[in-house]
Amino acid sequence: xxxxxxxxxxxxxxxxxxxxxxxxxxxxxxxxxxxxxxxxxxxxxxxxxxxxxxxxxxxxxxxxxxxxxxxxxxxxxxxxxxxxxxxxxxxxxxxxxxxxxxxxxxxxxxxxxxxxxxxxxxxxxxxxxxxxxxxxxxxxxxxxxxxxxxxxxxxxxxxxxxxxxxxxxxxxxxxxxxxxxxxxxxxxxxxxxxxxxxxxxxxxxxxxxxxxxxxxxxxxxxxxxxxxxxxxxxxxxxxxxxxxxxxxxxxxxxxxxxxxxxxxxxxxxxxxxxxxxxxxxxxxxxxxxxxxxxxxxxxxxxxxxxxxxxxxxxxxxxxxxxxxxxxxxxxxxxxxxxxxxxxxxxxxxxxxxxxxxxxxxxxxxxxxxxxxxxxxxxxxxxxxxxxxxxxxxxxxxxxxxxxxxxxxxxxxxxxxxxxxxxxxxxxxxxxxxxxxxxxxxxxxxxxxxxxxxxxxxxxxxxxxxxxxxxxxxxxxxxxxxxxxxxxxxxxxxxxxxxxxxxxxxxxxxxxxxxxxxxxxxxxxxxxxxxxxxxxxxxxxxxxxxxxxxxxxxxxxxxxxxxxxxxxxxxxxxxxxxxxxxxxxxxxxxxxxxxxxxxxxxxxxxxxxxxxxxxxxxxxxxxxxxxxxxxxxxxxxxxxxxxxxxxxxxxxxxxxxxxxxxxxxxxxxxxx
Length: 671
Ligand code: PLP
Description:
Layout: E1 5-6, H1 17-28, H2 39-59, E2 65-69, H3 72-92, E3 100-104, H4 110-121, E4 127-131, H5 141-147, E5 151-157, H6 169-178, E6 184-188, E7 207-211, E8 222-226, H7 252-267, H8 274-291, E9 296-297, E10 308-312, H9 318-327, E11 330-331, E12 333-334, H10 347-351, H11 356-360, E13 363-366, H12 373-392, E14 406-412, E15 415-422, E16 427-431, H13 438-447, E17 451-456, H14 462-474, H15 489-493, E18 499-502, E19 505-511, E20 518-522, E21 527-531, E22 548-555, E23 558-561, E24 572-574, H16 576-585, E25 590-593, H17 597-602, E26 612-614, H18 621-628, E27 635-638, H19 643-654, E28 660-663, H20 666-670
Parallel strand pairs: 1-11, 3-4, 3-5, 5-6, 16-17, 21-22, 24-28, 25-26, 25-27, 27-28
Antiparallel strand pairs: 2-8, 7-8, 9-10, 10-13, 12-13, 14-15, 15-16, 18-19, 19-20, 20-21, 22-23
Bound molecules: pyridoxal-5'-phosphate.
């Protein structure tokens, strides 16, 4: 698996080879300052002029201004500053300009942030108001019609970066025209360049910012179109470059590279056209449907860019899908702002009213118009491989050490549910399923043909009872709780055999604190499912001193603790540059890949020629005893980004292992 399949083109793109060559030439042969009057400067000036002329043609800029910026964010700020300065002047002259700054609810954050910033700095005192979108992600024209008469400025995007939804700019223009609106209109065209036809001077659009790095030019170069006659105030003054519209020595490498991209757009042969891209999307969508039955697409294909696919898979959080794709060498992104610990649902999808699980489980896959059939073939093949890995894996592949029960952990946002299972016997017991994860646990149980013997709780509370009922119902069982803690009556009645049998294993009930609480002790590995109680809270003797406690919510940031174990805040870290030497000097070190089994299946991990052992974080509980039994053998945990490995190392450290390490930055940096 050596070639990355880069499917995150809406975030940024690689640089077109011709653009790279043009940038190098602008830095080596034609390195002049375009303001210099000697020949070297004039050569640079010629590149600048040629690029601007091309840009004018490609964008249909007519007599409008076309200036180079550092990117779209600068273009947006320049446009907003220009419009608000004009509003301020017009108001001072007694003109009525409206009291609203309107922007689409799904705009890139650069837009509302820029509106708020300049409104505050200029003291214009206008009110920011989001124009809602419908279920397809398109602006609500009825609301726009209602608010437009009060608008001093309107900001809408040509196409959305998360969903690819293409705005109905003609309909917006009609509303503005019908109402005789004098609002300044900004259209963020970042995602439109190279994918949608643009004839800006034929439209009512006042400002249109662009960003080079979304279409094969380097980062740090952009363009701003300003309609002829629309107000303009420079954001940056100084040496008077760009006819005084944007001072500062021009980014000539970026401009030359952008020129090469614009040339490719003009020649019409380098990039795929809309129909070709739509056919490619159809192939990718087909592969996704095969790989993930039940997949839901978050926007209609009829009204989205053919290069953006936003989807969610029931029962699979975005983070897991990202990990899976990443393991298969496919670079995609969460459709939402997603940190390792917590996935914040996308505000774009929320604005469209998609169900919560779809918004927080959203994944965005985007490619650029340079894609070819071979690339799409490779992407589809990897998607299918991910589907196979996913179907086979989660519980079955990673068999527990001989004679031991399997223990799987299901976690989300610091809450944990546990599954004690025996594949041979086809049995499992669920403990403390969190409400948000009951569906996933049911899925896993069903997929692996297990029979749920009991759904237990450590605490008798309403939320837990609801989740356990949901789990039983999802598995087609009677939803009624056998008791407040879910302990089956036949076991409770049989005093001689007060243990729940899960295949070869016994799960015993330990006295908890009061009648509303219980703990469960598993024979091997010796784990105690303790709910919210940490070691110090136990009555004397109830819990074996060497047992590992498994919690239903993080205790000091960990799912596992040990009675009386020290709390530490940081895992021992191995920096990438020290890794090789460490492994050389510690020949006996065990390198543990804590990625999930389906990730390991999608792409095996090689670490500097060392064999690695895949012990997924979610299955670590069943291996803890074993790992702790060899305290002198260094453990080097690794995962994709260094997050999960840090948790694993910290956990082992807290449980008393003196040589547990995490590789900072994960395999993403090891290469
Ligand atoms: N607008 C949209 C729709 C975008 O996708 C982006 C980039 O993420 C921006 C604006 C900001 O562009 P830049 O990175 O050039 O400042």
